[in-house]
Design brief:
The protein is of the alpha/beta class. It has helices at about 5-10, 10-35, 45-65, 80-110, 170-185, 195-200, 205-215, 260-270, 295-310, 310-325, 330-350, 365-375, 380-395, 400-410, 415-430, 430-445, 450-460, 465-480, 485-495, 500-510, 510-525, 530-540, 550-555, 560-570, 595-600, and strands at about 65-70, 70-75, 150-155, 160, 190, 215-225, 230-240, 245-255.
Length: about 625
């Protein structure tokens, strides 16, 4: 008898098939449950190798032993009865078929059943400051109608931190953000903005819901595991409509290799989506901005804190960027990040409880850092936007700030923050239609950024379009229910519409210290006899800045008191002085020489280049 016939007679082929099916099932189950149970990355490879090592033993075992109705017996101890062989064969056939069916079911579930996005840790709380558009939202569910989906579109979700101590969230976020930034430069690819993609961090949303909210056909999700100098990055590209996995891969390397790993991931995505790369992108998608591992790690830490906002986070960001540029003085992105952090610190120090109401003026450092970043990289969008922010808000250099914003947008038209900050600078000048274009551009890029909606709403409010403003304030609060500036501004818009009951409901949802003066304002607007009490409540409140107390006093007809408060705020270098010309409650004051003197301090209205448009 030939060897082949003997192998068949002893059911070696059937036993091998059953073992392979069992191995496939075990591997599928392990790869599915390992991430959910936070098992080490080496679990799946170990299971595979155990299966490979066990295969020769199965061959030997099936050659030596036979499955009989009485159980396992050595082959030489049983008679060569075909009925016994047939029974054993049927049992092995049933076992193999059952395992193969189970394997197919598991494969189908993994590939075709829609899944929720990989949950990551909760986001850092957001501090809301009127001028700044960079902070993300945090608690609401994105329930936007699904726009038409471009098949060449993607959202890069935040990567999960699977490091042993789960203390590398800044690094995993940074890996995802840098891949997103690289893909966003690909001309033929629509990429959801960072704030909108990271909106889903820590939320158990389905991939279909994410795709519908962001208008994308695909998502990239993954995980990062660092231990010492070693890093493993796992990424998978998934269709949002059905959860089908188009591609997945794990990469192991050293921290010095992360740029190469990111490049390979980005290139794999463009290959899968059949995107045509242009120019230099054919050879390199992700620029290697530094060769210094420590500098890059500090830069990612800085970006993490900068995105979180809040005074303490911004100070931590500045410290990290300082460390990054110290480790690599030619690291242009680190200098640009430092410029952004220093540009924002003065404003946040005035409104963040950690600042105790005192300004920390880091504007000079912001300009210096931006200038150095631009010396190293003349097309640094972030450095240009940061310099424009300081030139407008601190130096009232309207021409210089506008030039910086225009250059920033030309350098990176997809930077939503640059669009929004420029839109705000146009709003201060009552250049409403120009501002609206950039607000809409920012929202198109970041549809789930709550402060982008707030900024647009504020411009509508200042134009007297109060119904539209309330709707936009509601959208910002849907995305970030605790956004202080949106609540305050919504109350003033509702009061302007004489919708006092609604205004009072919103006011009572605020903290007592902020709710009392707004409730008093509403009561006085309803009943003028209560004006004196409202004025006392407003003046003794902790409400700060040009945008709160003075407009409320003007709404009550106390123009002299509003002027006196404005003069006090200007003498104290209030960080929101540039709002003066835009606020409509001050219109009756425009002819007053004292108000004109304040306008002169900030250089508004401008004679050129834009012309102020009428507002209410």
């Amino acid at each position: 008898m030939s060897l082949f016939a003997e192998l068949k007679r002893r059911n070696v082929f059937r036993a091998s098939a059953a073992y392979l099916a069992l191995g496939w099932v075990v591997t599928q189950v392990t790869s599915t449950v390992a991430p959910a149970l936070h098992l080490p990355d080496w679990i799946v490879p170990v299971v595979v190798w155990i299966g490979v090592i066990g295969f020769p033993f199965v061959l030997v075992f099936s050659w030596v032993f036979e499955l009989t109705p009485e159980g396992l017996k050595r082959e030489r101890d049983i008679a060569h009865d075909d009925s016994i062989r047939l029974i054993a064969a049927r049992r092995l056939d049933h076992l193999a078929i059952g395992l193969f069916v189970l394997a197919i079911v598991l494969f189908a579930v993994d590939r075709f059943v829609p899944r929720s996005a990989v949950p990551t840790s909760a986001p850092v709380p957001v501090a809301a400051v009127p001028k700044d558009a960079g902070a993300p939202g945090n608690t609401a569910t994105a329930e936007k109608p699904a726009p038409p989906v471009n098949e060449k579109s993607i959202a890069v979700l935040p990567f999960a931190d699977l490091s042993p101590n789960h203390d590398q969230e800044y690094f995993s976020d940074g890996m995802a953000e840098e891949i997103l930034d690289a893909l966003a430069q690909v001309q033929d690819l629509k990429v959801a903005g960072r704030t909108s993609s990271f909106f889903f961090k820590g939320k158990n949303e389905t991939l279909q819901a994410i795709g519908a909210a962001l208008g994308v056909a695909h998502v990239l999700e993954g995980s990062v595991r660092t231990q010492g100098t070693k890093v493993r990055i796992t990424a998978q590209l998934i269709q949002t409509r059905d959860g089908f996995h188009l591609w997945s891969q794990s990469y192991d390397g050293d921290l010095s290799d992360v740029f190469q790993v990111q490049e390979r991931i980005a290139r794999a995505i463009t290959d899968q989506l059949k995107v045509v790369l242009q120019g230099d992108q054919k050879t390199q998608l992700l620029p290697k901005t530094t060769a210094n591992v420590a500098a890059h790690e500090q830069y990612l830490r800085g970006r993490y804190f900068l995105t979180a906002r809040g005074l303490t986070n911004l100070q931590n960001a500045a410290a990290a960027f300082e460390a990054a540029k110290t480790a690599d003085p030619n690291y242009a992105d680190a200098w640009a990040g430092l410029a952004q952090a220093y540009a924002l610190i003065p404003e946040y120090s005035m409104f963040d409880p950690a600042g105790n109401g005192h300004e920390i003026n880091t504007s000079a450092q912001a300009i210096a850092a931006a200038d150095e970043a631009l010396r190293l990289d003349p097309n640094s969008c972030r450095a240009l936007a940061a310099r424009g922010y300081v030139r407008i808000g601190k130096q009232f250099d309207w021409a210089g700030g506008e030039a910086d914003y225009r250059a920033a947008i030309a350098a990176d038209p997809r930077d939503a923050t640059a669009h929004q900050w420029y839109g705000e600078s146009l709003m201060y000048q009552r250049r409403w239609s120009e501002a609206a274009l950039h607000y809409d551009a920012a929202i198109a890029l970041e549809p789930l950024a709550p402060i982008a909606h707030f900024a647009k709403a504020l411009a509508l409010q200042y134009q007297g379009k109060l119904e539209a403003a309330v709707a936009e304030f509601d959208e910002s609060l849907r995305l970030a229910p605790h956004l202080y500036a949106s609540k305050m501004s919504k109350i003033l818009s509702l009061a302007g519409l004489h919708r006092y009951d609604e205004a009072e409901v919103t006011a009572r949802l605020m903290a007592a210290t902020d709710g009392r003066p707004t409730i008093a304002l509403i009561a006085a607007l309803r009943d003028p006899s209560r004006t004196d009490a409202a004025v006392t409540e407003i003046m003794t409140s902790s409400l700060g800045g040009v945008v709160y107390k003075p407009p409320m006093l003007a709404m009550l007809g106390r123009n002299d008191l509003a002027l006196a408060e404005l003069e006090r705020l200007f003498a104290a270098n209030d960080p929101l002085r540039e709002f003066l010309y835009a606020i409509p409650e001050f219109n009756p004051l425009h002819s007053d020489p004292r108000f004109q003197a304040l306008l002169k301090q900030i250089g508004l209205p401008r004679d050129q280049p834009g012309k102020a448009e009428p507002g209410q």
